[in-house]
Specification:
By secondary structure, the chain is mainly alpha-helical. The protein contains 39 helices and no strands. Helix 34 runs antiparallel to helix 35 (589-601). The protein is globular.
Amino acid sequence: MPDLDRKTTGLPPVIAAVCRSHDLRIALRLLPTVPLDDAFKDVLVDCTRAGEWKAALQVLKAVFAVSVLPTVLGFRTAITACGKTLRWHHVLRLLARMATSRVSPDLISWNASINACKKGGKLKMALHLLSQMPSIGLVPDIVSMSTAISACEQGGDWIMALHLLEQMPIARVVPDVIAFNASISACQRGGEWRMAMHLLAQMPTNRISPDVVSFNAAISACKHEWQVALGLLCQMLTERLQPDVISFNAGISACEEGGEWKMALHLLDQMHVAIAEPDVISFNSSISACEKGCEWRTPLHLLSQMRRDRVVPDVISFSAGISACEKGGEWQVALLMLSEMPTHRYTPNVFSFSAGISACTKGAQWRMALQLLSQMPAARVLPNSVAVSAAISACDSPGEWQMALRLLSITSQPSAVPNVISFNAGISACQRAGEWQVALRLLAQMQMIGRPLPDVISFNSSISACGKSKDWQVPLQLFSQMPAARVVPDVFSISAGISTCQTDGEWQVALLVLAQSMLSFSAGISDREISRGKWQVPLQLISQLPNSTIVPDAIYFNAGIMACLKGGEWQTALHLLGQMPLYRVAQDVLSFNFAICACKAAGEWQMAMGLLSRMWTARLVPNVFSFNACTSACDKAGEWQMSLHLFSQMTAARVVPDQASYTIGIGAFLTAGL
C-alpha cells in the first residue's frame, strides 16, 4: 500500500494512525468510539470483509471531510465514493438509510446512484431509480438521462435507449453529444446499424456536432456493412475530425467481415499517414481479413511488421496467421508458425491447434493431424469439438473410417461435446469407404439424441453413401425425412437422390418424391432458413418439368420465384412468372410480390413498376406489400417523385399504408427537401 499515507489524509487521528499501520480491521474496531452514522459503518465493514481497503478508505475520507452526522452532503459523498468503487449495493443501502433518516436526496446524489448502478451492470435498477425521481420531487436532468441511456448501452437494450432519447425533449431536457453517443453505441451493440446511422444524421439537426466518439460508434455498428463504414471514415475527414486508432480498427474489422482483405490492408497502411499508430487489434483484424480471403503470405509479412513497429503479437495473431495458412492450403507453413509460438513465449491455445489440424486435413496429412491432436493434452489444452472434427475430417480416406469413428467417440468428453461438424465428418468418412449402413447409424444417432440436429450436409452425405446400397428406396426415404427435420434440400441433395435412383431406372419416381418434399417447404419456411446458396434447388426441380409427370401449381412456382429472390436472380424470377400461364397456373399476388422484391433488390425500379401495372391487367389487387416494395425500389434509385406518386396512389387503391409505407414516404419527403 505505497499510497496509504496520502489516502488517510483527513481521517480522525486515531483511525488514520492505525490505517497507516496497514491494518484496516483494527481501525474499523475503533469505529464505535467515533461519532459516525451506522449506515457508513456498515459500508466500511462490508468493504473490509471483501478486501476492498481502497474503497473503505475512500468512503472514510469522503465522509469525515464533510460530516459524521447524517446530512445530504455526507450521504452524497459516500454514495459518490461507493459508485467509484463499483459498490452499487452499498449505494442502495445508503439511499434507504437516507429515507429512514429523513434526509431528502438531492439531484447530485440521485444521479450518482444511477451511475453506480450503471457501473455495476444493473440496468433495471438504474431505470427504476430514474423512474422514481418525480415521486421524490426531483426533475431528471441531462446527467440523469445520459447516464440511464449509457446503462442501456451496457445492458444491450437499444430500444430503451432510443425511448429515453426520445423522451428527453418531452422532459424538457436538451440532448447532448453524450446522450447521442450512448444511443448510437447501444444500437451498435444491438446490431442496428441503420438506426445508428439515423441517429448520427440527426445530430446536426439537433445542433449537435458529432465527435470522434460518435463516428467510432457508428463505424462499429456497421461491422457487416464495410462500404458504409468506409464512407463514415471519409466523412470524418470532411467534418475535420481526425480518425483515431479506434476508428481505423472498426473500419478494418468491417472490411474483415466483408471479406475485403485488400481494403483492410489499405486502411492499415493509412493509419501511419493519419498518425494513428496501429495496435495489436489493428494487426489481428488485418490478419483475420487475409485469412478470410485465403491470402496466407500477407499475414507472415504482417507478423514481421508487428515486430518492426514494436507491436507485440499475441496468441490471436499467431492463431489467425495459422488459420490463414490453413485456408491457403499451406500446411507446412502453418505447422512452422505453430512450432514458433513457444519461442515467442506464447502457448498455443485450442484455436491454434485446431487451425493447425485443419491445415493438415486440407493437406491430406492425416497422421500429422492426429499427432497434433495427441499433443494437446501435453500442452495443457483440452481438445474441443472443432479440433476433433478437423481430425475426423482428416480420416476421410477409405481406409481410415474406423479411426474416424474412434475419434468421434472422444467427443463424448465434456471438453469436446459432439457437434454437427463432428458427426458430418464421421458420416463422410463412412460414405467414402462405402460403409453406408454405418453412415445411416450415425445419422439415426443424431436424430435420436437431438443434439446436434442433422443439417443438409448430414443428409447429403448419408444419401450419397446409400449409392452403395443398390436400393433406390433408401435414399428417397432419407430425402422424405428432411422436411420433418426442418432441413432445406440443396442442389447436392437433388443430385444425390436422382443419381442414386437412376441406377435402378427409377428417376421419375425420384423426381416426384423430391418435388413433393420441396413443396412442403414453400408455405412455411422463413427467410433465415433459406440461405443464398440454396436458391438453385427449386429451379432444378422446375427445369425437370417437361420430362416428368408432375403437375405444378402456384405454390410450386412461387417457391421458385422466392428462391430467385434469395439468390438475387431477378431475371430468372421474371422468367418463372412468365412461365406460369404456359402451365395453366394462375399468377397470384404472392407471385408478383416476390418478383417485385427480386427487381427491387437488383435496383430495377422500372421493372418493379411494370410488374405493379401488370397486376391490374391480371385483375389482381396490389396489397400494401406490393406498394411498399415498389416505393422502396424507387426510393433506393433516387426517384423520390415516383415514390411520392406511389404513396398517393395507395389511398386511391384503397390500400391502408402501414409503418413501413410512412417511413419510405417520409424519406422521400426528406430527399425532396419538402
